[in-house]
Amino acid sequence: MNLYNNDISDPKAKAFFEEAFKLCKNSKESDVKKFIENNRLASSPEEHVKAGFYSLAVAKFNKEIDKEESGKYFHYAGHILKITNYINQAARAYANAGSVLKDCQDSKNIELAVRSFAQSKNCYFDIGNSELSEKMYIEEQETKIKLLTSKKVSCFSLKIWKLSSIFGTSFQRWYCIVLLFILLFSFLYEYLYRYKYIIINGQSKWHNIISPVYFSIVTISTLGYGDIFPIRWEAQLVIIFNIFIGYLLLGLGIGIITRKIKGH
Fold it and tell me: Keyword annotations for this protein (predicted)?
């Protein structure tokens, strides 16, 4: 995701950007940075906006030269532009900050990338772009994994969340995981039936070929009709694990629905 000057529709803002970029190319980057530093909290709206687009210019100028510097100024730009109600530009600036900084090795920069993606997500949500907001949310979570890994902190739960539902955003992934576990436990129950670890209404014979799938669904959904039950501790352990997985999948499903309802 890149921000070029032709993405700036406001003529005055575009002029600020081009002016600053030209100064940077003419070895006057320090003057541009000095202006930004002096006007980041300017009381004059025009000077404040100018500082925001100057920050964008510095960020773009440094993108291939100094990623850390580029990311920092993209983040500055996002902050200033958000305050000055250039929300769309702020969202893109934050997104650029995240995409640049997440590739750094320093955990401090990766942490700033996480915050940048989070801000971009919120900005896109504020302007009603739920698709890009969700994309930034996924980038935020992906970068969190990288941050935790760089700090040598366990991120197992985040990785499982990603695997099972792409951080609570994908029903399709969730459906596939549910189906996978239903089939897995169906095979296990077929095995347990063959060795008479479970019985059906006092018998040890399936009613039909669907029975193991039926029992897997009933157990994973925690309904438990009681028509099929274990008679050995090994089978009991499998069923306990099946129920545990069922609760986890139910929680994931509710989480996805909640995100869809909130639209965030």
Answer: Membrane, Transmembrane, Transmembrane helix
Instruction: Give the Cα separation of 38 and 40 in Å (integer).
Output: 6
pLDDT on residue 190: 87
Mean pLDDT, the chain, whole residue set: 87
Decide if 57 contacts 32 (C-beta within 8 A).
yes
Say whether domain 5-153 belongs to CATH 1.25.40: yes
Residue 91 to residue 125: CA distance in whole angstroms: 9
What is the distance of C-alpha 82 from the center of its chain? 21
pTM: 0.83
Contact by Cβ (8 Å): 129, 158? no
Domain residue extents for the chain: 5-153, 171-262
Per CATH, the number for 171-262 is 1.10.287.70
Q: Is the pLDDT of residue 241 over 90?
A: yes
**What number of residues does the chain have?**
264
